[in-house]
Amino acid sequence: MDDMHVPEGKLKGKYKRIGAKVGRVVIIMQAISIVVVMLVCIFMYNSLVTKMQTDRCTNGTNMLAYELEKLSEGDDPNQLLDELKNRMGCEFTIFEGDTRAYTTVTQDGQRVVGTQLSSDLNKIVLQQGDTYVGESEIQGASFLCSYVPTKGDDGKINGLIFAGISREEAKQEVVLVIALSILVSAVVIGICIMFLTGYMKKRVSHPLGKITSAAGRLEQGDLGLADNEDIRIDISSNDEIGTLAQMFEDTFGRLRSYIGEISDVLEAMAGGNMTQGATQDYLGDFQSIKKSLDKIQSALNHTMGQISTSAEQVSSGAEQVSSSSQALAQGATEQASSIEEISATMAEISQNAKQTAEAAEKAGEYVNEAGSHLGVSIGFVDELNVAMKNISDSSKKIGTIIATIEDIAFQINILALNAAVEAARAGSAGKGFAVVADEVGNLASKSDKAAKATKELIESSIIAVTEGGNIVNKVTEALDQTSQSAGHVTDQMSIVVDAVENQTSALSQVTDGIDQISSVVQTNSATSEQCAAASEELSSQASLLKNLMRSFKLKNIR
User: Fold this and answer.
1) For residue 2, with 0-12 CB atoms within 10 Å meaning exposed, 13-18 middle and 19 or more buried, which class applies?
2) Model confidence at 304, in pLDDT bands (50, 70, 90)?
3) Span 39-46, mean pLDDT?
4) Does residue 36 sit in the same domain as residue 183?
5) Are both 189 and 310 inside the same structural domain?
6) What PANTHER family has UniProt attached to this entry (predicted)?
7) pLDDT of amino acid 322
8) Which of 61, 74, 149, 354 is the most buried (most CB within 10 A)?
């Protein structure tokens, strides 16, 4: 399974391994990392190296000041400066006042001495006595430098010392450091890519190739049953790929087991053995296959059992038909004498049918008349129901008016009370008004009582009218049902009349049929003999069918 099997028609374009895709992604990511590292290095090293070089200049001036304290009168200052330059990689200068007296800076092979300090630095270092650390231009070249003032025995500033590094040299150092950093990073990243590519190929691409090959066989329906091959996916991994490989192996084994058992059951059924069934526990949707197979087997068992039972019944029935055919021939003779009696009876039945038809027509007329009367009654009841509804509506309106009267009486009663209070305040001058207020209050009370009594009567009337309406509705429903029943009776009477007329017509046909029956009876006698011979042939075929059914092995289904 080292070569991946890719199903035809399943993929468009060139097939690519996932390991190769991951490798390309890793390479792209590493290239991006190199660019990012380069930019970070340029930024960081430029700043860092600049600070380091500035610190080196500061250390240079400190070292020069220290060495000058130890310098004897006979020692050459230029020799001291050259030694410090070789040791620290900086240019050094000793100023006497603002004039360069000793220096390692050369031009055309000669030390640059006797030149003056710039006015800006003169002001900062000599006049103000401050240390200057930063950039400065010397002989047209830019330097990172450190200027420190020097003092004589009297404590006054008598000159300064200088330590500096050319910016061009500083840039070269930065470029060199960055180049080395990028080279080291590229080598490390290249090694990582090689290692990761090999790892991806071993742990991802090859295992997935084996799984894809197995999936291709599964897609083609190759489970190894034909060659009795146990399909294995040789992957030893404790990650998702190993789990996937194990699941594929389990799937192959389960499908082989299921299909093998189903094939055995179908072969047994083809050989007539209906007792062998599926015994495994089928998982998931495979349960429906087992259920369907069990249903097919059960249905075939049931059908074969019915065929076997039917064969026995046919055999038994054939014997009965044979004996019945003989009895039929004997009965045909007896039928001939009975037919003459039937003919006389039919004439009497025909006369009775005519009388029945006339009576049915009269009954239909009576029922139609009763139905028309019921229709009129239903109309009157409907009008009564409408009138009672109108009475109920009017009573409700009267009740509303009475409620208004009650409100008015209540307001009048309050006004009477207010008038009585005002009359009491007026004293003797309001006595006559108090009498009138009492009378008005009495009238308001009587009106309120009368209104309440009337309201109770109206409510009783509404209840009575409602009950009457319900009764009228029930009467209407009863009359409707009676009218419908009358209509049904009329329809049935019409059917009876038609049936009697049809019977009268049919009786004449029956008479003709009886004559035909007489000739048929003669034919039946000959046919009975033929049936006896056919029943013997049927009996032999039933025996043959029973013998065929014995070759099937069926379950006992109850």
Assistant:
1) exposed
2) confident
3) 64
4) yes
5) no
6) METHYL-ACCEPTING CHEMOTAXIS PROTEIN 3, PROTEIN ICFG
7) 65
8) 61
Q: How far is CA 262 from CA 270, 293, 380, 452, 552, in A?
A: 12, 8, 81, 92, 19
Asked whether residue 531 is assigned to any structural domain, the reply reads yes
pLDDT recorded at residue 392: 72
Instruction: Assess whether 300 and 449 both reside in one domain.
Output: yes
Residues spanned by the domain of 462: 294-549
- Residue 107's DSSP bridge partners are 110
Cβ–Cβ < 8 Å for 253, 280:
no
Mean pLDDT for 254-266 is 77
With tokens 């050259």, the residue in question is 82
Last residue of one domain, picked from the residues 169, 196, 223: 196
Taking each helix axis as running N to C, give the angle between helix 286-426 and helix 240-270, from 0 to 180 degrees, rounded to the nearest 10. Answer: 110
Question: Domain with 36 in it: what CATH number?
Answer: 3.30.450.20
List the Cα angle 139/144/149 in 5-degree steps: 85
| Structure-token match 């009776």, residue found | 489
279 found inside a domain: no
Tally the domains of the chain: 2
pLDDT per position as a tens digit, 450-500: 777 777 777 777 787 787 777 867 877 777 787 777 677 677 767 866 776
Place 86 in a pLDDT band, splitting at 50, 70 and 90. very high
Q: What is the CATH number of the domain that holds 415?
A: 1.10.287.950
CA 551 to chain centre: 53
Q: Among candidates 418, 421, 413, 422, which has minimal Cα distance to 440? A: 413
Q: What type of residue is 136?
A: S
Distance, CA of 291 to CA of 558 (rounded, Å): 19
